[in-house]
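Retro notes (design track)

What went well: tokenization of the new backbones is finally stable.
What didn't: we kept losing track of which sequence belonged to which structure.
Fix going forward: every design gets posted as structure first, then sequence, in one message. First example under the new rule, 250 residues:
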């Protein structure tokens, strides 16, 4: 009898697959660390954050480099061209629908506009269109994420859903108004105004947003955001009714 059979594990069984699964898990966590960082990270920093020996992290980095998912610069490791290309293919139907409307919104109000989707209990920026203005600057770039309960995009999405017992008062106010505004919740000193995109009644999947600095949004800006959210909502529902499939969206 072979040693594998004597120990009760079959070749190719769960025990044999553990090292590969662990390596994949570590590689994905490493890639996420690099993707979520706003600055390049050194080998030492990654090793510390991963709580793994530098030699193990280095081998994982080399594999990710070979696939062009990360790049090594003099400042440290950052996302590579292949990862950025894959990121642009995230939710392609939503991107195709939202991108031209967000560009129109930015031009209409003269402020940076962005489009945020829901990922579980987080809000993730999918599209951002910058407008050179003294009233706004780009701070939300594709891939940025923050808790759904912070910032107007997440509050707008939560407000479009049934009331929760422990929800913030701002969510209740946004539900009555149809839009949400917050200041300094995600980026200090900046305010945002957002309206939800709803795939079906009670199911908010995204939000249309604009960025302010010192001004308060007026009726024109509010109406522009609401108009854009309505257009995207309508086109999303049409896409879903004709067979479009969006992960996690129904």
């Amino acid at each position: 009898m072979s040693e594998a059979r004597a120990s009760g594990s079959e070749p190719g069984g769960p025990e044999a697959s553990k090292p590969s699964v662990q390596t994949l898990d570590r590689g994905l966590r490493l890639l996420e660390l690099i993707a979520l960082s706003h600055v390049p990270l050194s080998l030492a920093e990654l090793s510390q954050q991963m709580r793994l020996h530098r030699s193990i992290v280095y081998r994982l980095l080399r594999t990710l480099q070979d696939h062009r998912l990360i790049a090594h610069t003099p400042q440290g490791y950052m996302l590579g061209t292949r990862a950025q290309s894959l990121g642009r293919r995230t939710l392609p139907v939503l991107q195709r629908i939202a991108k031209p409307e967000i560009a129109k919104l930015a031009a209409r109000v003269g402020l940076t506009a962005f489009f945020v989707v829901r990922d579980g209990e987080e809000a993730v920026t999918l599209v951002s269109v910058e407008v050179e203005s003294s009233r706004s600057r780009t701070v939300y770039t594709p891939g940025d994420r923050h808790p759904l309960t912070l910032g107007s995009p997440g509050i707008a999405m939560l407000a479009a859903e049934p009331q929760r017992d422990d929800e913030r008062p701002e969510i209740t106010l946004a539900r009555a108004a149809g839009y949400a505004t917050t200041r300094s919740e995600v980026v200090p000193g900046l305010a945002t105004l957002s309206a939800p995109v709803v795939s079906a009644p009670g199911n908010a999947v995204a939000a249309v947003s604009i960025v302010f600095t010192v001004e308060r949004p007026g009726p024109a800006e509010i109406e522009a955001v609401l108009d854009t959210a309505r257009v995207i909502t309508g086109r999303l529902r049409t896409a879903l009714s004709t067979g479009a499939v969006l992960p996690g969206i129904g």
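Added context from the reviewer: Confidence is low (pLDDT under 50) at residues 1-17.
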